[in-house]
Structures are given as structure tokens and as C-alpha cells.
Design brief:
The complex is a heterodimer. Chain A is of the alpha+beta class. Chain A has one domain: Aminopeptidase (3-Layer(aba) Sandwich), CATH 3.40.630. Helix content of chain A is 37%, strand content 23%. Chain A contains eight helices and eight strands. In chain A, a hairpin with a 2-residue loop joins β3 and β4. In chain A, α4 packs across α6. Chain A is globular and about 50 Å long. Chain B is α/β, with parallel strands linked by helices. Chain B has a domain of 133 residues: Peroxisomal Thiolase, Chain A, domain 1 (3-Layer(aba) Sandwich), CATH 3.40.47.10. Helices cover 38% and strands 19% of the residues of chain B. Chain B is globular and about 60 Å long. The two termini of chain B are 21 Å apart. The chains are: A alpha+beta, B alpha/beta. Chains A and B meet through α4 and α6 of A and α8 and α9 of B.
Chain lengths: 229, 396
């Protein structure tokens, strides 16, 4: 697609400086080790392949979360969103979860979505925690604005942290945001934020070498199968 | 009193069954049991349905009548049995008594529950409705809360440790991976849920000292069995399973009124009655399904039915005595912990699994070799209504 760079500079939102998220590794309940690392812009087309089958799963609001995540990642790829980032969870190189968000200002973060592709292992909890860790500990922000689109998200974020209700409209749907402050985050950190750094080189090399994907049927089975782990 | 046999059994995979209504599940499980029994529709005299929450969760009453109609078993007698989480075994008991008395010859017993169509909070509240309505429930107690307090006291009085609870959790989750009917087919890893500092997130405290993986999941599911006279079972010309004994006992509704809350008297009494009726003793049992809604209950029940002395159940689990190949294999189905706990279905499902064990129909990685006698404990309330069944294999 031809790009007029002069016009493009007008269309592209401004970007705030962002330090990279330092990768970490988490031991899951099944003993597998999940590498959590920051995705690069060029990873987006590959990531979207894993998001695509989730667009058609109604269960637990996977459809709306996936549809919005798909659009957000595409917007990042095509330079149509301000200061977005994406973190990945990988086990044995396979993509098992995705979280994203962006900087609204240098002080305020805007949480977007959490998509756990493998379920029953609290992957969503770990990745959401990594997202909050990024905003508050590495980007140095004061607050993160959050909404939940599913009851599971509500339980995990609003109740477990617990977040503070506000009347600030969130850009996802315009509902009232819930706020994670530094005080709440650091109080919750000992029970919700874990991970070891640095990631051992073989694990990191495997994660970076290739983002592996389960096939569409496997993804659908993991998320919406009868077993419902 | 006539002897009673189990002619056929059936079960649906437990889990989250969004696509099935409560009645669908009961019907499918019943059809499997009827098919296994090789019966025509016109030979069922009565249908007993075990269910605890249909009225509260599905706003549905007269479930047994509905099932009889759905299965075209008219004009079979129909009754719904509600006895908390012990509803399943209670329904079986009623079926057994009906045949033993000579009033009926063939009875279908189905147990089912659909709990996943409400949020976890509402499901927890629904289960808590079995607590005392003025002395317990208004103060916010839940069953996990009760189990947490019970565990703490059991730890103090009988030396149970987190290591003991962990052994139950790891064993039953591993067995769940071998059971296609299990809700949670996911093996756990000791490091991931206990040793690693990351376990604080993977396996958080749910009701201190119980953690997430000490609790059973909230499940949908159904199971069914067909009871008949021993004479009818003999005619099939192959090994069958009989009800060798059963017992039931009730304890105080509130835990606080018991002299010693760690003494599960109803479990002990139910087991003693069942053993006396069967003319057997605990060491005669080859396989057991115990009501492990919480890991502590498998340990406590294994002691109260007489498999181990008080204070020895946890150690026995750690030593592997309750694993497949051990002294007394317990919950080879994965138990409530992994197979799941659709409350009305559980007592029936326990017996279905024991029937498969005694008919030697399970795969090698779940089958107790040459199992002849099996035991179930279905635990209602917090031990205030308990049924124990002993089943025995009979050669034709």
C-alpha cells in the first residue's frame, strides 16, 4: 500500500518515550515456565494469527476482547495509536497470552486488554500483573485506568487488587474507569506480581526465535472446550 | 429384604456444559445408564432424581416428573431427592430401599446439577444455603470458610500439614488427567503450586489454610444408575455389582454445637452401619471414592471410615498408600477435586466410578487390579448428613 509520508506524519498520533519492559520468567501451576516479554511492532502480524480464532468465541466475552485487541494491535502496527505496547506470554515458544495498553500521558496509563489463550493456569492474572508492573515500575506512571469487559476480568482486577472506582470515562466503551494507584499496586504486589529476572538465555532465545502458535482448533478447544478449565 | 444390584451406569463428562440444560444432562446420563442396563423403557418402575439447586439456580421444580416425561418412562413413579451435597447417595438409598422392600423391581436413579450458569459468587452462596439459617449463614459463612476453620483445627489436633494436603491435591489432579469424565484434566506440579515463590499467585489462599488447589471446582454434570433385584442381574450372565451395605447418619447442623468439630461422627456412624450390613471391615475394601470437596476431607474421611487411625491419613497420602497400587487407592476418578462437584450428581457419580472399578472396565492407569469391594462416602452439609455405601462384585 503506497504511503504518503507527509500526510502520514499528520495522521500518526504523537508518541511518548517508553523504556522497554525487561523480560521475566514465571513458573506456572503445571510446572511449565512462561516467558513474559515485550512484543516488537514487527511481531504483530504473527500475533494476530492467534487472536483471529478467538474473535468467534462468545464464551466469557472472548469475542469482544479479541476483536478490540485485534484492532488495537493493528492500530499499533499501522501507527494509528498513541504510545501502545504489547506484552506476550510464551511457554516452550508457544504464545499463551497477550496483554496490551498505552500511555495516555507520562503520568497516566490506559490499560487495554488481557487475552489468555491457554486457560486454568492464571496466565491472565500473571500477564495483567506484568502490565501493571510495566506502567508503574518501568514507565514510572502514577495511575493506570482500567475497565473489565468480562466477569472474570472484574473478579481478577477490580476485586483481587482491589481497584479504586472513579468517574473517569475509559476509552474502551466509555464506562467509568477503575484506577490502580501506586499505593494499591505496591500493596498488592507481594501476592499478585511475580517473576524472575534475568530470563535464562536458552528460554529467552527460544521465545524470541519464533512465536509459535497452536492451530485454530486447539485454541478454540482450550478456550471454549467442554472441559472449561 | 431383597438384595439389590446395579444393572447399568452412565455419566456425562463433568465441567462447564453451557450447551446443555439441567434436564438435558439428566436425560443423557439416564439414557447411558438405561442403555448400559439393556432395559426397554417399559421396565422402569420408579425414577429418583438427586438435585440440590434446580429450584434456586434454574427456577425449576418437579425435576423427576419432568425427567420421566422427557425419557418417555410414563407412568413410572417420580421423586426428586434434595439432601444437600449428599443428594446423590440419598437418592440411591431410596431406590435401594424401594427394591429391597419388594415394592419396585427396577429403579432409575439420576443425579445432576447445573452450577456454572451463575457466577462463582452466586454458586458459593447457593452452596452456603445448606448452613444453619440463623446460626451460620447470616454471618457470611461459606463452605470453603467452614473447611478452612476445620482444616486449621484438624492441623492443630491431628498433625495434618500443608504437605499432606498437597499430596491429595497432586494425586487427584493427576488422576483427573486419566479420567475423560473429569472437569479438570490438568496435572499440577509441586514447584508451581507450593515450592516456587510464584505459587503465591498460582495457588493463592482461598480460606486459610486452604489454597485454590485444595478446593473442588464448581461444575455442571450428571450421572445415573439403574437398580434392580439380584435375580434380574444374575440373568445377564456376567459379573455384576451389588449393594453390599449402606449407612446414613446425621450430626448437628451447626459445627459449633459439636463436642469436637474435628470428629466427623456422621461419617464414622455411616461407615460402621455400612460395614456391619456388608459383614466386611475397612481392610476388605479395595478402592474408595471419598467426598473430597476440600483436600482435608479426603484425609479426615479416610480416618473416620477406618482406613487409617486418626492423624495417619495425611501421612498415608504422602507415603503413596492411597494412590493406585497403594494400600487403599482413593479417588482414582480424580475425586470431587478433579472430576468436579455438581452437587446433586456427586453421590451417584462416585458409585458409577466404583461400579466401573468392580466390573474391571477402566483403563490400566485407573483400574485397581481384581477389585472386588468398593466404598463411597457422600458428605452433606459440613458432615451433618453422610451416606456410606459398600459395593461388591459378584460373579454370575
Amino acid at each position: 500500500m503506497p504511503v504518503d509520508m507527509e500526510l502520514e506524519m499528520v495522521l500518526r498520533p504523537p508518541q511518548l518515550p517508553m523504556v522497554p519492559y525487561p523480560p521475566k520468567v514465571i513458573t506456572l501451576a503445571n510446572g511449565k515456565r512462561m516467558v513474559v516479554r515485550q512484543a516488537q511492532r514487527e511481531d504483530v502480524p504473527a500475533i494476530l494469527k492467534s487472536v483471529h480464532p478467538c474473535l468467534f468465541i462468545e464464551r466469557d466475552y472472548y469475542d469482544i476482547v479479541s476483536a478490540r485487541l485485534y484492532g488495537e494491535l493493528l492500530a499499533w502496527y499501522r501507527y494509528r495509536v498513541k504510545s501502545e505496547y504489547c506484552l506476550l506470554g510464551q511457554v516452550d515458544g508457544y504464545l499463551v497470552g497477550i496483554v496490551n495498553g498505552r500511555m495516555e500521558t507520562d503520568k497516566v496509563g490506559m490499560s487495554y486488554h488481557t487475552l489468555a489463550i491457554d486457560r486454568g493456569l492464571r496466565i491472565g492474572s500473571h500477564l495483567f500483573a506484568a502490565k501493571m508492573e510495566y506502567h508503574l515500575e518501568y514507565l514510572g506512571q502514577e495511575d493506570v485506568l482500567i475497565v473489565a469487559e468480562s466477569p472474570i476480568g472484574f473478579r481478577r482486577w477490580m476485586i483481587e487488587y482491589p481497584l479504586e472506582p472513579t468517574k473517569i470515562p475509559h476509552e474502551l466503551g466509555g464506562g467509568d474507569s477503575w484506577r490502580l494507584t501506586r499505593e494499591i499496586y505496591f500493596k498488592a504486589k507481594p501476592r499478585l506480581v511475580v517473576g524472575d529476572r534475568p530470563v535464562p538465555k536458552p528460554l529467552m532465545d527460544e521465545a524470541v526465535a519464533e512465536i509459535k502458535f497452536a492451530d485454530d482448533d486447539t485454541i478454540r478447544e482450550r478456550i471454549a472446550g467442554l472441559k472449561g478449565r | 429384604m431383597r438384595d439389590v444390584a446395579i444393572l447399568g451406569v452412565g455419566m456425562l463428562p463433568f465441567g462447564r456444559r453451557d450447551e446443555d440444560s439441567l434436564m438435558d444432562m439428566l436425560a443423557y446420563a439416564s439414557l447411558k445408564a438405561l442403555d448400559d442396563a439393556g432395559l426397554g423403557n417399559d421396565t422402569v418402575d420408579a425414577v429418583y432424581v438427586a438435585n440440590m439447586g434446580g429450584g434456586m439456580l434454574q427456577h425449576q421444580a418437579s425435576i423427576a416428573s419432568s425427567l420421566v416425561d422427557r425419557l418417555s418412562l410414563l407412568p413410572a413413579a417420580a421423586e426428586t431427592i434434595e439432601n444437600g451435597p449428599a443428594s446423590g447417595a440419598s437418592a440411591v438409598k431410596n431406590g435401594v430401599l424401594a427394591i429391597a422392600s419388594g415394592h419396585y423391581d427396577t429403579v432409575l436413579v439420576a443425579g445432576g446439577e447445573k452450577m456454572r450458569e451463575v457466577t462463582g459468587w452466586r454458586a458459593t452462596d447457593f452452596v452456603a444455603s445448606m448452613t444453619h439459617p440463623t446460626a451460620e449463614y447470616p454471618y457470611g459463612i461459606t463452605l470453603p470458610g467452614m473447611a478452612g476453620m476445620f482444616t486449621r483445627l484438624y492441623m492443630e489436633k491431628h498433625g495434618v500439614t500443608r504437605e499432606h494436603l498437597l499430596a491429595i491435591s497432586l494425586k487427584n489432579q493427576e488422576m483427573g488427567t486419566r479420567n475423560p469424565y473429569a472437569h479438570v484434566e490438568m496435572a499440577l506440579d509441586r514447584e508451581g503450586i507450593f515450592d516456587s515463590p510464584h505459587a503465591v499467585v498460582n495457588n493463592p489462599v482461598s480460606a486459610d489454610p486452604l489454597h485454590l488447589y485444595d478446593l473442588c471446582p464448581v461444575s455442571d454434570g450428571a450421572a445415573a444408575l439403574v437398580l434392580c433385584t439380584v435375580e434380574a442381574a444374575k440373568k445377564r450372565g456376567k459379573p455384576y455389582v451389588v449393594i453390599a451395605g449402606f449407612g446414613q447418619a446425621t450430626d448437628t447442623h451447626t459445627l459449633a454445637e459439636r463436642d469436637d468439630p474435628t470428629d466427623l461422627k456422621a461419617v464414622s456412624l455411616a461407615a460402621q452401619k455400612a460395614f456391619a450390613m456388608a459383614k466386611l471391615k475397612p481392610s476388605d475394601v479395595h478402592v474408595a471414592e471419598l467426598h473430597d470437596a476440600f483436600t482435608i476431607l479426603e484425609i479426615a474421611e479416610s480416618e473416620h471410615v477406618g482406613f487409617f487411625k486418626k492423624g495417619e491419613g495425611g501421612k498415608a497420602a504422602v507415603a503413596g498408600k492411597t494412590r493406585l497400587g497403594g494400600q487403599i487407592p482413593i479417588n482414582l476418578s480424580g475425586g470431587l477435586k478433579a472430576r468436579g462437584h455438581p452437587v446433586g450428581a456427586t453421590g451417584v457419580a462416585q458409585m458409577v466410578d466404583i461400579v466401573w472399578q468392580l466390573r474391571h472396565e477402566l483403563p490400566e492407569n485407573r483400574q485397581v487390579k481384581n477389585a472386588q469391594v468398593g466404598l463411597t462416602v457422600n458428605f452433606g452439609g459440613f458432615g451433618n448428613n453422610v451416606l456410606c455405601f459398600i459395593l461388591r462384585r459378584v460373579e454370575p
